[in-house]
Amino acid sequence: MYNILICDDEKDIVNALKVYLADPAYVLFEAYNGKETIDIVSREDIHLVLLDIMMPVMDGITAMAKLREISNVPIILLTAKSEDTDKILGLNVGADDYITKPFNPVEVAARVRSQLRRYMQLGGGSIKPSVLTVGSITLDDASKEVTLDGEPVSVTPTEFEILKLLMESRGHVFSPKEIYRRIWQEEPYGSDNTVAVHIRHLREKLEINPAEPRYLKVVWGQGYKIEGGRKK
Predict the structure, then answer these.
(1) 3-state secondary structure string, the chain?
(2) C-alpha to C-alpha distance for 139 and 141, rounded to whole angstroms
(3) Pick from 28, 53, 67, 207: CA 20 to 30 A from residue 146's CA?
């Protein structure tokens, strides 16, 4: 699973790129200026950044220079045809590639795959840790164990995989359909209730008060996420 950050100050462009990159293997994050991009890369395990050049608050070139101080994540610039000078500057500062607007969906998908493949082959993309921690919850993927405050918690294989999915992308909201598609590997027809039941069971096992969860949160009309505690 790859975490991809899309940053552009135009929401329509962000939405279009989300459509082009709709893939069960991708978790998509959004940002609308360079500062938001730096904040997200600082706290999340991002594997690739699609970054616009001309943005308010902090432009893409400035953001990229700052990103290179903390990460070697692949960066693909989103540029207009008239921004040739910025393309060259961007490549000199540390961009790995660029895509010119208006976008060709096939080209976008191909360039993203190419950069991810190269990044992983070079060892830049760290393999997700086998031990994940959010607050008092710890999940060990190697031993398939979950603990709460150091005490073992009995979970089913499906509950384990849902919890792992949420913990790998702490703070990211997954729709019930997206969770179902990833965990069950089937098209999510009438899946909302199935996912809701498993989330409820996880809350009962991991929350002090399941009705007021500290970790497993619902975002009404959107889906579920896990948050709380410091990322490790």
Answers:
(1) CEEEEEECCCHHHHHHHHHHCCCCCEEEEEECCHHHHHHHHHHCCCCEEEEECCCCCCCHHHHHHHHCCCCCCCEEEEECCCCHHHHHHHHHHCCCEEEECCCCHHHHHHHHHHHHHHHHHCCCCCCCCCEEEECCEEEECCCCEEEECCEEECCCHHHHHHHHHHHHCCCCCECHHHHHHHHHCCCCCCCHHHHHHHHHHHHHHHCCCCCCCCCEEEECCCEEEECCCCCC
(2) 6
(3) 28
- In a structure prediction context, what are the per-residue pLDDT tens digits for the chain, which is 232 residues long? 889 999 999 999 999 999 999 998 899 999 999 999 999 998 888 999 999 988 989 988 899 988 888 888 889 999 886 666 766 777 777 788 888 888 889 989 998 998 888 777 666 554 456 889 999 999 998 888 999 999 999 998 889 999 999 998 888 999 998 898 888 877 766 667 789 989 999 999 999 999 899 999 999 989 999 997 544 3
In sequence order, the 6+-apart residues with CB closer than 8 A to the CB of 197 are: none
Q: What domains sit in the chain, N to C, each tagged with a CATH number? A: 2-121 (3.40.50.2300), 131-226 (1.10.10.10)
Residue that the structure tokens 């190697």 belong to: 142
Peptide bond before residue 188 is cis, with ω within 30 degrees of 0? no
Structure tokens at 225: 């996420």
